[in-house]
Amino acid sequence: VSRVLAGIQPSGTLHIGNYFGSIQQLVKTQQENQVFAFIANYHAQTSVSDADMLKKYILQSAIDFLSLGINPDKTFFWVQSDVKSVLELYWILSSFTPMGLLQRAHSYKDKTAKGINANHSLFSYPVLMAADILLFDSQIVPVGKDQIQHIEITRDIAIKLNTHLDEEFFTLPEYQTSDNVGTIVGTDGQKMSKSYKNTIDIFCEQKELKKTISKIITNSTPLEEPKEYENCNVYNIAKQFLNKSKQEELKNRYKQGGEGYGHFKKYLQETIYEYFEPFRQKRQYYLNHTDEVRDILKDGARKVSLIADEKISLLRDKIGIKY
Ligand code: TRP
Fold first, then answer.
1. 39-43, 81-85, 116-120, 231-235: lowest mean pLDDT where?
2. pTM of the predicted protein model
């Protein structure tokens, strides 16, 4: 059993690339591992400044993740800002973080290169992330490729402190990327990503789903003729939802001819809508019971605070803050 820590950036609507690229594995890993999952609202604060938006995103993310299978009976699930010791650790780690380490961070360099105003929280973002991870002695951290360097920075900071204390006080985390699932393509055939505006959202209504799917780019093979499924965006999206035998069935429909892309799109629409139906029902329940969601989050925070406070209290003593 490993300790897996997942930080969820609360930034609005989830799409099927998020689902197959990370959420599904996180949900699965709950069966074998001890999962710690939190909503990184302090981190979100570095990019979202509207208070109402930030509040809305926290609850919306919590509801979405619970609906998609985060099980609060097995997994610790909380909001970052409800566990205060993370900020104390952030400060302590700062004293062991060389400036150069942060100056080399790609995400900081990219953001400032794009003209985003550099403030201190953007600069020290990786230190707070290190605090999130090290506070719980996390062993495995599932992340997207863009976050790998942050895990490396976390290891560097942990090594600095461990060396200073002359003991393995912090566990060195390993990152885990979901390369094995392959790229989830969007409506234009590129990787599905918000920034490409080619996403299919998990919880959109039928009408919107239909509209999005109608925009999927296909070629112009006439209806009667056999079609290639390999490079067809409709097929490549659909296969994520289908088991082997259903995939074969669909391949055969392509090969036979006599059906147009309109038929395959309609099939895709029905498939996606059906696939997420149980999740949609759970989500409706949580949307109607937001107090229950808040209770789950507060309960999660209470439980992990016990672990966090113990770690911090030990550290205070070791570095001379406790007197
Ligand atoms: N920075 C991460 C992201 O953008 C979110 C995050 C914050 C995180 N703290 C973390 C991820 C700790 C893993 C571990 O996706």
1. 116-120
2. 0.94
| Residue-wise pLDDT tens digits, 301-315 | 999 999 999 999 999
Q: Please tell me the distance from the alpha carbon of residue 146 to that of residue 166, in angstroms, as a whole number.
A: 32
What's the 142 CA to ligand 1 centre distance in angstroms? 9
Instruction: Check if 161 has its Cβ closer than 6 Å to any atom of ligand 1.
Output: no
For ligand 1, say whether the CB of 5 is within 6 Å of any of its atoms.
yes
Q: Which of 18, 22, 41, 43 to mutate to test the pocket of ligand 1 (most atoms within 8 A of CB)?
A: 43
22 lines ligand 1 (CB under 6 A): no
Is the CB of 265 inside a 6 Å radius of any atom of ligand 1?
no
**Ligand 1 contacts CB of residue 177 (under 6 A):** no
